Amino acid sequence: MVLPVRTDVEKPKLEVGGKLAGIVPRNIDEIFRLASAISQSGLAPKDMSTPERLTVAIMTGLELGLPPMFAINKIAVINGRPSLWGDAIPGLLWSRGFAVDEILQGQDEDRCAVCTVTRPTGEKITRSFSVRDAKKAGLWGKLSKSGEPGPWIKYPERMLAMRARGFAARDGAADILGGLYLKEELEDVPAEPRDITPVAEIMPQNFKRKRIVGKSADGRTTAYKAKNEGMEVTFNEIIGHIRAAADLEFLNSLRDSYAQELADLPTQWMKITSQEFVDKWADLGGEPHECPMLEMEERG
């Protein structure tokens, strides 16, 4: 038997104009349910793919007063520690009545990012970070873990600004950040040390290696061996001198001063160095065909 459809039932009215509000979980169970749903959706950031990481991010965000969806996009877990993306700092502080002012000043090694945080009470806290500071910390010209150019090579001014912002925000707004570091800072901190001693190899006595240990196919030091021997310091030093060169004569002298070091640099590192040299040579008005680094590359 088919029941008649009632048409006299009053349907709920469609309400409009309501204020949108984000979902805010009230306990750990609700946090984990929300984290699991986000993880299963496949829309979570790459470094926030598990419910556990999302839970940490949401809990950290709630302590800072951030809604869950904002937190998972602006909080990252680096080396097991939650950190905040640098571009989230101004918005967080502005929402609490703070003012944030940033400038970049100076030239060459004296180039410096300056950040001033003004508290709601009017107190100002200013911190800075210069190219000289970055070189001293071994950051200037730093490669990524894969051996490719890292952010300190691609976006040096942006990284200087992030360092100054992190210092000023932690010192001037400790009651808001609670000592939380910027993601850009923690990425430069080595992970916990681990044993990388290779397992002893067992080979026949008549076995002969085709390559010299620690050398690549072109005879240069491998990136792995270079990092273990601390060659990154020399690499950063060379890059720093190239960028700071004020004339062609000084730039040209670097080729002879670091002849042995340049010959030992891993292939990828040498490509970066060559490009920096060629670009600086052009910036200083040198003729491209007279660039000594091109001649050195042709000789191998």
How are the SSEs placed, and which strands pair?
Layout: H1 28-41, H2 51-64, H3 68-74, E1 75-78, E2 81-84, H4 89-94, E3 99-105, E4 112-118, E5 124-130, H5 131-136, H6 151-154, H7 156-172, H8 174-177, H9 183-186, H10 223-228, H11 231-244, H12 248-257, H13 259-264, H14 267-283, H15 292-299
Antiparallel strand pairs: 1-2, 3-4, 4-5
Helix pairs in contact: 1-2, 2-3, 11-14
Summarize the structure.
With 300 residues, the protein is mainly α.
Structure write-up:
The chain has helices spanning 28-41, 51-64, 68-74, 89-94, 131-136, 151-154, 156-172, 174-177, 183-186, 223-228, 231-244, 248-257, 259-264, 267-283, 292-299; strands at residues 75-78, 81-84, 99-105, 112-118, 124-130. With 300 residues, it is mainly alpha-helical. The protein folds into 3 domains: 28-78; 89-186, Double Stranded RNA Binding Domain, CATH 3.30.160; 223-299, no CATH class. It has a 3-stranded antiparallel sheet with strand order 3-4-5. A hairpin with a 5-residue loop joins strand 4 (112-118) and strand 5. The protein is elongated and about 90 Å long. The N and C termini lie far apart (92 Å).
